[in-house]
Request: fold
Amino acid sequence: MSDRRPEPFDPITLEVYWSRLVSIADEAATGLLRTAFSTIVRESNDYGTVLMDRNGDSISENTGGIASFSCILPRTTKAFLAKFPLESWRPGDAVVTNDPWLATGHLPDFTVVTPIFHRNEIVGFAGCIAHSPDVGGALWSADCRELFEEGIRVLPMRLIRAGEWNSDVVDLLCANVRVPRQVMGDLEAQVVSNGVSVRRVVEFLEDTGLSDLQELSAHLQARTDRAMRRAIAAVPDGTYQATIEADGFDAQTTRIVCTVTVSGETMHIDYEGTSAQIDRGINCVLNYTHAYSVYPIKCILDPFTPRNEGSYRAITVSAPERSILNPVFPAPCSARQLTGHLLAGAIYRALEPVLHDKIIADCGGAPTMRALFSGVGRDEQRFSQVLFASGGMGAAPHKDGLPTTAFPTNVGAGSIEAYESAAPLLVWKKRLRTDSGGPGMFRGGLGQEVEIEVRAGQPVRLSLLSDRHRFPPYGVRGGLHGAPSAITLDDGSKPHPKSRTSVDSGRRVVLLYAGGGGYGDPTLRSREAVKADLRDGYISAAAAKRDYGLE
Reply:
């Protein structure tokens, strides 16, 4: 007779429960999007919502937000629990932080966590991250020399206590930001989002008869852990290494050395040899380094299993302290994505010898290029508006890269109509960039050209966060690199790609977004595909002849 205990959840029940928990996180995301004030959240999807158990381990996450946030939110929740023990929480509480080392790696992201109570017992947590339109300081920029210049840092504190807002925190925030109405509107939306999760989880527990989420959480995490371990086990054991370079800041080129070690069912990613931290805001804290190391692995090895805490347990990540991937306080890190987004490309290049049929070429949207306009409009109202747009995605082993699509982040672009309505800016052009996709058997995704005119009636501040000017996205397996980035003003001058400048009203800014790298030898590309690209304007006649040999 077997001593094996029966599983408490049969596979069908487990799938139904799991799907419902994912739908709760999605509904919470909808609540955030419908109540947020800023276009950063409403239009560009720079947010994440996660359900966690009593330990702070993630159970489910929304399907449309930033995947890296969902890796980080459980870590932040555990930091909250270290400061606020489980027994100290009350129904109606909410805590907040934007500390880069505890949360997402830079000050503009606020993390709000709310406890979930059922029958007078805490059964889990609802978490939400959203990029705030302003945190004071130097705006969202890359040129600060220490964290203190980058904005207000909110250590873990109670935002709401038993339903009552902490007026001291609210007053402190409103006194230190340029657009307090938008900042507080988004924070209130985050609280609303968490409230949706709280109500729906209670309904879920009542419907299922479960007393809490712990046993279900353990089984869901075990499932994702097994799925990832099986996927890693299929990769040949060994040590794989790659080195990539990026523009960095001025003469300080960023060098990322990535070593991936596969051993049985586990994988370790190490960045020994990577550039040291610098006194500019492109440092990437370890939370963010970890998130953008494990998520690309999930994408290529186990893309279909829903993500939760167990998805990443078989993968460990390390980076030397005081490196650009593990800086120490008070290193500036506002533009940490300019470094963190490069990690997927480094990992894929390292694994190319054994996973060339799964990886993609380097992406023109890695890192993302951002332009933040801030100032006072003709109506004397302050504005702070970020242009979210993307370069082309790298080509895959079986298809062309997607145009103007970000990866490894999945932030959106939003509508131009909403963008123009929120600030005195006029977008003259937003079009695909011919010849920007890297040539290959499969072509890299096209970047884009964006031209924006300032119509504020007075000069505005432009903060640029960009890369790929000197080091364009590389191709793989014989594919060629994509077109590099470029930023110019209408008089032909070039502003600093990672600094702040002033732009007079009536002037235009032209941003050229990089194209993705190509995959495979360009001469092997289908002649019909080359002709179609030429007909559609994706490539020029000169490029068709030069890169593909089309006569």
